């Protein structure tokens, strides 16, 4: 005879659910990571601009 395994009513799921960050408003971890990445890309863009044009940012804009 085969016995069916008994399942408890309050048992935990076998697969762990991951804590996925969702976008939100305010000072969240997700927002700060995105802002930091955009800041790094912007800084790299300014450095490339100065390297390629041999002018600083304000001279390139025509302010000086």
Query: End-to-end span in angstroms?
Result: 91 Å
Percent of residues in beta strands: under 5%
How many β-strand stretches?
0
User: What low-confidence regions span 5 or more consecutive residues with pLDDT below 50?
Assistant: none
Tally of helical runs: 2
Please bin the fraction of helical residues: 40-55%
Query: Radius of gyration in whole Å, from Cα?
Result: 27 Å
Tell the overall outline. rod-shaped
The pLDDT mean sits at 83
H and E order: HH
For the biggest sheet, the summary is: none
Structural class computed from helices and strand pairing: mainly alpha
Explain this structure.
This protein has 2 helices and no strands. It has a domain of 33 residues. It is an all-alpha fold and 64 residues long. It is rod-shaped, with a radius of gyration of 27 Å. The termini are far apart. The mean pLDDT is 83.
Feature tags:
rod-shaped, 47% helix, mainly alpha, single chain
Give the helix/strand layout.
Layout: H1 29-53, H2 57-61
Write a brief caption for the model.
The chain is mainly α and 64 residues long. The protein is built from 2 helices and no strands.
């Amino acid at each position: 005879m085969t016995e069916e395994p008994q399942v408890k009513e309050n048992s935990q799921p076998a697969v762990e659910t991951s804590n996925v960050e969702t976008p939100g408003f305010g000072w969240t971890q997700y927002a700060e990571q995105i802002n930091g990445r955009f800041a790094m890309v912007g800084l790299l863009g300014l450095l490339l601009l100065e390297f390629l044009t041999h002018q600083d940012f304000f001279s390139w804009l025509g302010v000086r």
